[in-house]
Fold this protein.
Amino acid sequence: MILGVNTASDALAIALVEDGKVLAEALRDVGTEHSEAAFELLEAVFKWTGRAKAELRAVGVAIGPGGFTGVRTGMSMAKTIAQVLGIPIYGVETLPALALQFAGHGLVSPMIDARRGLVYMGVYGETAVVPGALRPLAEAIEILRGLQGPLTLVGEGVVRHRAALAEALPQAFIPPDVLMTARAAPVALASERRLKAGDPGDGPTLAPLYLREPQAVVNWEAAQENAQP
């Protein structure tokens, strides 16, 4: 049994997966208050299934990109569980995990809003067609315009910029907002595949994938530059 944790977006998601099947999954829109509800949802999925934490074989966690506080909260919880149980931990990038929710629908472009006209986005088929990166929305649209074949746009970034994307990319399929939430089941499924392939996990090398510096760091560096004589 594999535990999946995804706290990289405004949603908090916890899932239990076994042999490619979702045993239970909990989703809650928490904004930036991931730490308040994380362990409550964790206990809920075990209660629903009647399973015990001791049955876990591995933990998968979304490492970003996404909200800095959310990513840190999820990784801290996942690391603690893995260390206590002595099981592998797998870091899963948020964008390909989001694309996995719509696998088999041609090319999939997941987007996470990064504010100020920026989005984290990539394009995925069986592999990464366009690697995930932080891009201006206008640049992302131009990349997507150059693609051939069926295209699906997914994620909370698409919800925020739905009007602009629908106008610029009329050929793309944009699912209803209710289906756009980043889930934990794909994170757990990707981790289960790695476990079955003999991957020992990420262990001490596990680190967040921010793709840009937190705003607090940017502000501090700007202050230091302004303070120079």
About this structure: DSSP finds eight helices and nine strands in the chain. Residues 117 and 137 are 6 Å apart (CA to CA). The chain has two domains: 2-95+182-214, 102-179. The longest helix spans residues 68-85.
